Amino acid sequence: MPSLITLFALMICCVPCCVLAQESSTEAKTSVQSDAAKLKQTVNQAFRLTHDGWSSDEVILDDELHQAFLKKCSVILPSVSGEEFGWTLLNLRKAGKLETKSTRRKQVNCDPVAHIAEIVARSSTDQFSVSLDRIMVSPEMRVEFNRLAKQIDPEVDLYLVRRAAFKLRKTRQLKPELISRIVDWGRKIEIYSAAKTTAKPDIIPEHPGIYIFRDHTGYLYIGQTDNLRQRLITHLDESHRLSLAKYLKAQGAEKISIEIHSFPPDSRAKETMVRRAYESELIASRKPKFNIQP
């Protein structure tokens, strides 16, 4: 049996270890809090120096203001990503903790590009599974958002599209589609021009899924099928939907794009009832002009 002196010595040795572990944890927590405070301070400072009177949304949406803001942030905190700076700016605004108020308001009519903005916003959020705000502050996702807009209309003003998307989000016109949030069957979303699909139909998988015709005016037609390639070949050759066929012929395939939501053949999407539920949800929220509402 160990002596009392030995036990006492062991206790003395163990206590500092416990204390050190506790101190280390406290220091780590304090460091994280300090870093978060420094980030918020930096964003507030950079916004004050670069916003030129405009709101935080405008600083995010306008390319020139956005780059000036990020540059100023990076000078102070070079190790932090641009996405984190933008995300912090939006969160400070939402929490009412931006120290500088906006004094200027821009009157812009972005309604003419609202259809494009809706298509691009929904496609982007479906593709990346994140919010529109997160897409706008991420350099990579923002580039993809812009690319999708230009794919629909090469001449479109990207600033107007971004602003229209924010307006749709604020007016709750981009509500998440329920079935898109609960489906987890290996869905893959791809976008092709109708012209490319006509020339190379083998790029379309022979899988079950949903297809969405669209152009710069908005969503045109949404359908479901157990074989995407076969159904789209039929549509592009001579659609059974006469109004759609007439429109496709008049506009030309190069102006139409097709968004494909394909699923593995062994997923639940092989069931017609399931695909129709998905199709109905998209029709109800996106309101394509050539569909009969289910």
Task: Write a brief caption for the model.
With 294 residues, the protein is of the alpha+beta class.
- Order the strands across the largest sheet as they lie in space: 1-4-2-3
**CATH architecture term of the largest domain:** 3-Layer(aba) Sandwich
Radius of gyration using CA atoms only? 26 Å
* Number of strand elements: 4
Tell me about the largest β-sheet: 4 strands, antiparallel
What structural class do you assign from the helix and strand content?
A: alpha+beta
Give the uncertain stretches in residue-range form.
Answer: none
CATH superfamily of the largest domain: GIY-YIG endonuclease
Overall shape: it is: elongated
Mean pLDDT: 87
- The CATH class of the largest domain turns out to be Alpha Beta
The helix fraction, in percent, is 55-70%
User: How much β-strand is present in the residues?
Assistant: 5-15%
SSE sequence, one letter per element: HHHHHHHHHEHEEHHEH
- Separate helix tally: 13
Spatial separation of the terminal alpha carbons: 83 Å
Keywords:
single chain; 294 residues; GIY-YIG endonuclease; 3 domains; four-stranded antiparallel β-sheet
